[in-house]
Amino acid sequence: MAEFQGGENLLFLTDEQLRQGIEAMFFAYRGFTADPDRILATLAYGRAHHRAIHFISRSPGTTVNNLLAILGVTKQSLNRVLRALVEDGLVDSRVGKSDKRERHLYLTEEGEALERKLSDAQRARMRAAYRAAGPQAVAGFRQVLEAMMDPDMRRRYYAIRETDT
C-alpha cells in the first residue's frame, strides 16, 4: 500500500489519499477507544455510558435534552444508559428548579473517579500521539476535525471549549 503523502497539493487529494485518511480514522478510533473499552467492560458498560459520563463531566447540571442533542441518540437509548448510571451511583439526576419537567445530571464522586480513569487513559494515548506528530500536526489535526463537524455540532463543541476559558 502506498504511504500517505500529506504535503502535496491538499486542494486536490486523490480518492486513494482520502480512502487512506478514512481508514486511518477507523483504526485510530479503535486505538482511542481500546483502553476505555477495557475499563468499561469490567463494569458491563459500553461506549454509550462513556460518552454520557464524559459530557456530564464537561457540563455538570446539563439537562437530559441537551445530552440527547450532543450524543445524537434516541431518548429510549439514553434513558437506558442513564438508568444504569444512576442505579449504580455514578450519576445524580436532579429535578430542575425552574422547570420541574427537566432533569439535570451530575456525576457523583464515584462517577467523577470513573470519568478520570477513562479520560486519563485517552489523554495518555493522545499525548503520546501529539508528541510524536509535533505541534504543527496537532493544530492541523484539530482544524481537520473541526472542519468535519456539522455546523450545529461545531457550535456545541465551541460552547463546551469556552467553559474552559
Overview of the molecule:
By secondary structure, the protein is mainly alpha-helical. It contains seven helices and three strands, in the order ααβααββααα. The protein has a three-stranded antiparallel sheet. Helix 1 (15-41) runs antiparallel to helix 5 (109-133) and helix 2 packs across helix 5 (109-133). The protein is globular, with a radius of gyration of 18 Å.
Give the SSE layout.
Layout: H1 15-41, H2 47-58, E1 62-63, H3 64-71, H4 75-87, E2 91-95, E3 103-107, H5 109-133, H6 135-148, H7 151-162
Antiparallel strand pairs: 1-3, 2-3
Helix pairs in contact: 1-5, 2-5
Estimate percent helicity.
55-70%
| Gyration radius from CA atoms, angstroms | 18 Å
Q: Which spans have pLDDT < 50 for at least 5 consecutive residues?
A: none
Spatial order of the strands forming the largest sheet: 1-3-2
H-E string: HHEHHEEHHH
